[in-house]
TrEMBL record:
PANTHER family: 1-ACYL-SN-GLYCEROL-3-PHOSPHATE ACYLTRANSFERASE. Residues 35-145 form the Phospholipid/glycerol acyltransferase domain. Keywords: Acyltransferase, Transferase. Pfam families: Acyltransferase. The keyword DNA damage does not apply. GO terms for biological process: phosphatidic acid biosynthetic process. GO terms for molecular function: 1-acylglycerol-3-phosphate O-acyltransferase activity. It comes from the Bacteria. The keyword Hydrolase does not apply. Coiled coil: none annotated. This is Acyl-phosphate glycerol 3-phosphate acyltransferase.
Length: 206
């Protein structure tokens, strides 16, 4: 209930701030199964748009453990289905927790394979979680304002969803298997960016 309430609040806030969001190809999203929703990490508000765009599906999120040190923020994060991860030393729980959630609840998972807005290098966590939980990976991309100033100028925001990526054909998630999943994700991101705007270039905004 709290997640649904918070998503409603976020939807209203985003509409007031920007009011120019477009969610494309939502019909590609699986309807009756859990999945991992992945995207290149381009803005800190991008997860909000993904959670709204993926409605009515509910999601869990990975969040860096430092965010949970603030009692108020920790309360919101936990009730919004977020769980802490140590980015320096992830540990087994970084894989086991989302796998258990995907298997035993009705929550899908939002992940950013690069792990940071300042990196385009894909990580292997998505591949391992998808294989162990036996779920598909749904790629998505955000194209839109990269600064709050531009977001408030109501410039167009586009979130486009891709065809689900099935990893069940990959027998083993060793170095080669993980590399193949990363290749499929990157190819999907590149294709979605081309579909929205071939001239789009992501530039890091400090």
């Amino acid at each position: 209930m709290f997640f649904t309430f918070m998503r409603g609040v976020v939807r209203v806030v985003l509409f007031i701030i920007n009011g120019n969001a477009h969610y494309e190809k939502k019909d590609r999203i699986p309807q009756n199964e859990n999945y991992i929703l992945v995207a290149p990490h381009r803005t800190w508000w991008e997860p909000l748009y993904l959670a709204v765009g993926g409605s009515p599906k509910k999601f869990s999120f990975m969040a860096k453990k430092e965010l949970f040190k603030n009692p108020f923020l920790s309360f919101i994060l936990k009730h919004a289905n977020a769980f802490p991860v140590d980015r320096e030393k992830p540990g087994p729980s970084a894989i086991k927790t989302p796998v258990k959630t995907l298997k035993n609840t009705d929550l899908s998972l939002v992940m950013f394979p690069s792990g940071t807005r300042h990196s385009s290098e894909l990580k292997g966590g998505v591949a391992l979680i998808a294989k162990m939980a036996k779920v598909k990976i749904v790629p998505a991309v955000y194209q839109g304002p990269l600064t709050l100033k531009d977001l408030f100028k109501r410039r167009r925001v586009t979130v486009r969803f891709g065809e689900p990526i099935d990893v069940s054909d990959i027998a083993k998630m060793d170095k080669e298997g993980i590399a193949e999943v990363e290749r499929r994700m990157q190819a999907a991101f590149d294709s979605l960016d081309q579909e929205i705007d071939p001239n789009f270039k992501y530039e890091v905004k400090e």
